[in-house]
Design goal:
The complex is a heterodimer.
Chain A lengths: L2 E8 L6 E8 L2 E8 L6 H5 L7 H4 L8 H16 L5 H27 L14 H8 L5 H21 L8 E2 L2 E2 L5 H23 L3 H5 L4 H10 L1 H5 L1 H11 L11 E9 L12 E9 L2 E3 L6 E4 L11 E2 L23 E4 L5 E2 L1 H7 L3 H10 L3 H10 L1 H18 L13 E9 L2 E10 L2 E8 L1 H5 L11 H6 L11 H8 L21 E2 L3
Parallel strand pairs in A: 1-16, 6-12
Antiparallel strand pairs in A: 1-2, 2-3, 4-5, 6-7, 7-8, 9-10, 9-11, 13-14, 14-15
Helix pairs in contact in A: 4-6, 4-15, 6-7, 7-15, 11-14
Chain B lengths: L2 E7 L5 H6 L7 H7 L2 E5 L8 H13 L6 E5 L2 E2 L10 E2 L2 E2 H11 L2 E5 L1 H5 L10 E2 L3 E2 L2 E2 L16 E3 L6 H13 L12 H4 L10 H5 L28 H4 L7 H4 L22 E2 L2 E2 L8 H14 L2 H4 L6
Parallel strand pairs in B: 1-2, 1-3, 3-7, 7-11
Antiparallel strand pairs in B: 4-8, 5-6, 9-10, 12-13
The chains are: A alpha+beta, B alpha/beta.
């Protein structure tokens, strides 16, 4: 039996990731996911001013910058015990939603779909079309994605001064309330974007898409018109089915959402438990109530000073330690667990936890997979944009105070939980004497790129890669699909370090 | 002949790349066409395989492949203990690749504050530094005498993130042979020869010392909120962000993100002061004169400003 071990570095994941896999008979038998570089953000924050997370943490990631700001602000809201006025809740939400909407399509067409141009698909009848659409900086869809998402992001600039890396959310609200006319501008920008998204990405109206409620509906939708088939979503479905992307990347089937986008007290937008995106932990379709006390991080297989089992982030520690010779330790990322279990997070998890009928049906038929994760990501905007428009309308009409002064925060503890475009993001802060005493961050990619935990259970990348058939070990494009379906963002694994080991294994690339 | 460009991320957050995507007229796609840029490698945008990248690196280092512009995003990470192994690629410290490529490049451009001056992590356990400066001090990773093949030192384009027009403008100038005058921190004067304060719509509040003590009041953010507008160089209020506005215009203090000492060691959102007068005064002025002027200015402030009637 041909048996081999290979190290697979990945690009287009925002940061560097190396995955070691063991292959047998052309199938991945086992996988080990290993992080990138140590940036030491958490330790850098200790001893700084109470509000400094608002400036420092958006700079963890140029892509989820507004999401880190939201988590930092919410952690401080809690530490200060301050109530955020409705107007500020809307402004924060609208900015966050703009960031999600652009991130989902940028990942879809600038990162994920670029794999369709891989030489492995040269014989695929859709290959030429894929090149025409997604060739970096040249493809039609790629160029339009850059142009249209950039315009949508002007909304965050109007609300917060710039994108990326602003700090306009502060404990108690936001620093200023845009005027009604500026909010109308935001409405125009959203309406224009939605027009493009409907014509180019969906090939139909948002309303028509929201009628797709089952696997059968999806087939009907695809066959219904050429505009559906030729849209980027239609093309994705056709290419993905042909490439069997629904048969790879299964994973554990555990889904996690922290919940996001809190509802203002007065609003026409409906939600669950006060949030538009509900929180929950699901095993398959079985959704349980979410409790942040169930989160813990393990370091048994990570190059950090050992402790027993897992630690809740409010008690967490980041003490890097490695000689490179510890045996069982192989990664610089910690292993986050919920109720002792690994979990995937992101658009598919949100669809499962919010009990979307389409995704419940597809999940039951085909299990979690690469195709389903990407499908959820590409259509998530259909549920975000209508709520965003409503909140913009309410903001125009109601205006209102945007800030409730919390005073100086001398001592306090809090956490900020939010859904980033790529999944659950949490900040945990402790302030003492006006200074940060502890700051712990768990990013969505930390959940996904997790190494094994104290019980030896694999992380989501590792679990999803196991069982993946790889046609050509010199060009394992299938592994790229699996990892990129999680919308990996490695710059965010704030406490991961790449030891830069060269273990003399065969190194191949995707 | 196309302009060959190699973009490497070191201790980076991708923010400068993401900021560059904000470019408008020409946008990034158009700019690449106008300058005939051949993008040899970019970690987020390329579809070259890493195997292909490795072969490319070999051709670059052997001189077989011409390298016109080397852009570095993110700090040079030297830890632990000077090994650089906190940021490695292919089993080797990335800093070694930077050093080797810098010798081959016609121009070397530091994109963002981290690549220019060390930025985030410059005081941290990762031992980060800038390409040719460590904060205010010349030297950094490549040393103060370094010049690229063109004879220019590293062209620094600080900012966290760097404004897209500084990147596209500097690339355009370098690619077309337009003169690029650099200041004492190797920043092109075109984009760093003015203060962030210049062009801020809140200038009149500053002029009459009408201050914002609580967020949302509308006023100058310099006296209480830690705004670095008058003490940081940048185009934020000249060219604006995302074609629209700037942080200071909407009431977010400037954090001085283009400065060699960013991020500052003291707390954000507050101004260090003595008796209500900021310790660090606007760039280039006399403290006694400034205090006399501010005292008179506050007394002379028009009611429409004091009452915040101005719609700015």
């Amino acid at each position: 039996m041909p048996r081999m071990t290979m190290n697979v570095p990945l690009n287009r994941v925002e940061g560097d990731l190396e995955v070691k896999v063991e292959m047998e008979d052309g199938v991945v038998k086992d996988a080990w996911s290993s992080g990138t570089m140590y940036r030491g953000f958490e330790n850098m924050l200790v001893g700084r001013g109470a509000l400094d997370g608002l400036v420092m943490t958006p700079r963890i990631c140029g892509i989820c910058t507004t999401t880190h700001l939201t988590a930092a602000a919410r952690a401080l809201d809690m530490a200060a015990g301050v109530k955020v006025p409705d107007a500020a809740v809307r402004v924060r939400n609208i900015a966050l939603m703009a960031e999600h909407v652009q991130s989902d399509v940028r990942h879809g067409f600038l990162m994920f779909a670029v794999d369709f141009l891989n030489p492995a698909y040269k014989e695929n009848t859709l290959y030429d079309e894929a090149v025409k659409r997604y060739q970096p900086l040249k493809g039609e869809s790629a160029a339009e994605t850059v142009r249209e998402t950039k315009r949508l992001l002007e909304i965050i600039a109007i609300l917060g001064g710039q994108w990326p890396h602003s700090s306009f959310m502060v404990p108690g609200g936001v620093v200023s309330m845009p005027s009604a006319t500026e909010l109308v501008q935001c409405r125009h920008l959203l309406a224009n974007y939605r027009k493009w998204y409907e014509s180019r990405v969906l090939g139909c109206t948002v309303e028509r898409w929201l009628d797709v409620k089952s696997a059968k509906d999806l087939e009907t939708w695809l066959d219904e018109s050429t505009s559906h088939r030729d849209s980027d979503l239609g093309f994705f479905i056709r290419f993905a089915r042909k490439a069997n992307l629904h048969k790879i990347g299964k994973g554990h089937g555990n889904f996690l959402s922290y919940g996001s986008l809190p509802l203002p007290e007065q609003t026409a937008v409906g939600g669950t438990d006060g949030m538009l995106v509900p929180a929950g932990f699901a095993t398959g379709k079985d959704v349980q109530v979410f409790d942040q006390a169930m989160i813990a991080e393990h370091v048994a297989h990570s190059w950090f000073i050992d402790y027993e089992g897992g630690k809740h982030p409010s008690k967490g520690e980041t003490r890097p330690y490695a000689t490179g010779n510890e045996g069982r330790k192989y990664s610089w990322a910690k292993a986050p667990r919920y109720d002792g279990r690994p979990a995937e997070t992101g658009p598919l998890a949100e669809m499962v936890i919010s009990k979307s009928p389409l995704f419940a049906d597809l999940l039951e038929r085909e299990g979690p997979n690469v195709f389903l994760r990407q499908l959820a990501r590409l259509v998530r905007s259909t549920t975000i944009m209508p709520a965003m428009a409503t909140w913009l309308n309410e903001a125009v009409k109601e205006g209102g105070a945007c800030y409730n002064p919390p005073g100086n925060i001398e001592d306090g503890e809090g956490y900020g939980l939010v859904e980033a475009a790529r999944g659950a993001l949490g900040h945990w802060i402790k302030i003492k004497g006006g200074k940060i005493e502890r700051y712990q961050i768990i990013t969505p990619t930390a959940w996904h790129a997790s190494p094994r935990d104290s019980d030896g259970v694999r992380g989501p990348f590792e679990e999803s890669l196991a069982g993946t058939p790889v046609k050509d070990p010199e060009n394992p494009v299938e592994m790229g699909h699996v990892v990129r379906s999680f919308d990996a963002c490695l710059v965010c694994t704030v406490h991961s370090i790449d030891g830069g080991r060269d273990m003399g294994r065969l190194r191949v690339s995707i | 002949m196309p302009v060959t460009l190699y973009w490497l991320q070191c201790g980076a957050c991708s923010g400068d790349t993401i900021s560059l995507l904000n470019s408008e007229s020409p946008d990034l796609v158009e700019l690449a066409g106008l300058l005939d840029i051949e993008l040899l490698w970019h970690p987020s945008l390329s579809n070259t395989t890493l195997k292909g990248q490795r072969e490319l690196t070999e051709r670059l280092l052997s001189g077989e492949q011409r390298l016109d512009v080397l852009c570095i995003e993110g700090s040079i990470i030297r830890g632990p203990g000077g090994t650089g192994m906190y940021d490695a690629t292919d089993g080797r410290p990335k800093k070694d690749l930077v050093a080797a490529l810098a010798q081959k490049a016609h121009f070397v451009v530091a994109v963002g504050t981290c690549a220019s001056f060390g930025g985030i992590g410059a005081d941290g356990e990762v031992e980060a530094t800038g390409l040719q400066f460590h904060k205010w001090t010349k030297g950094g990773f490549l040393g103060e005498d370094f010049v690229s093949k063109s004879g220019l030192p590293v062209v620094n384009l600080p900012g966290c993130p760097c404004h897209c027009d500084a990147v596209s403008g500097a690339l355009s100038a370098l690619a077309t042979g337009a003169p690029v005058a650099l200041d004492e921190y190797n920043r092109p004067e075109n984009w760093y020869g003015m203060m962030v304060h210049q062009g801020c719509t809140r200038n009149e509040y500053h002029e009459y010392r009408v201050e914002e003590a609580e967020f949302g009041e509308k006023g100058c953010l310099f006296f209480y909120k830690g705004c670095h507008g008058p003490i940081a160089h940048g185009v934020c209020n000249k060219l604006l962000w995302n074609r629209r506005t700037s942080k200071t215009r909407v009431g977010v203090p400037c954090f001085g993100c283009t400065r060699p000492d960013f991020p500052q060691p003291y707390p954000f959102f507050q101004t260090r002061n003595i008796e209500g007068i900021p310790i660090e005064l606007p760039h280039g002025l006399n403290r006694a004169h400034y205090m006399a002027y501010k005292g008179m200015a506050a007394a002379a402030a028009p009611d429409r400003l004091k009452d915040r009637k101005t719609k700015i």
